[in-house]
Design brief:
With 117 residues, the chain is mainly α. It is 80% helix and 0% strand. The chain has helices at 3-10, 13-33, 43-65, 70-88, 94-116.
Length: 117
């Protein structure tokens, strides 16, 4: 592949990776929350996990395509990731802690993108 076509996405790679990781962990956490004994208490968390995974996939895709709106998408992604991390933080499971960490990392990377674009 032509190196000039690859170069522009390199500035986004760290954020793309963080978004992909966050989406994966949100989806895994979503599945695990559904089988927890206190699933009803996790309703808000479960909804946040789905939203977070979706915006993370959208943000990664927009960066890969070099969307004209990548700054706004990444800003929204950071906001949703922080909300999801906060909600996951209410539970004391390995999967919710890992997900909250990934959400915080993704939010940090997305905030950096807002300053780069």
């Amino acid at each position: 592949m032509n190196a000039t076509l690859m170069a522009p996405n390199m500035q986004y790679q760290s954020c793309i990776d963080a978004c992909n990781k966050c989406a994966q962990l949100c989806n895994e956490c979503f599945r695990m929350c559904l089988v927890e004994p206190d699933v009803k208490a996790r309703e808000h968390c479960i909804v946040d996990l789905v939203e977070c995974a979706e915006i993370c996939m959208t943000a990664a895709s927009s960066m890969t395509k070099r969307s004209y709106h990548v700054d706004r998408i990444c800003n929204l992604c950071a906001t949703i990731c922080e909300e999801c991390a906060s909600e996951c933080g209410k539970f004391n499971d390995d999967h919710t802690r890992a997900c909250a960490d990934a959400c915080h990392q993704c939010a940090d990377e997305c905030r950096k993108m807002d300053n780069m674009v």
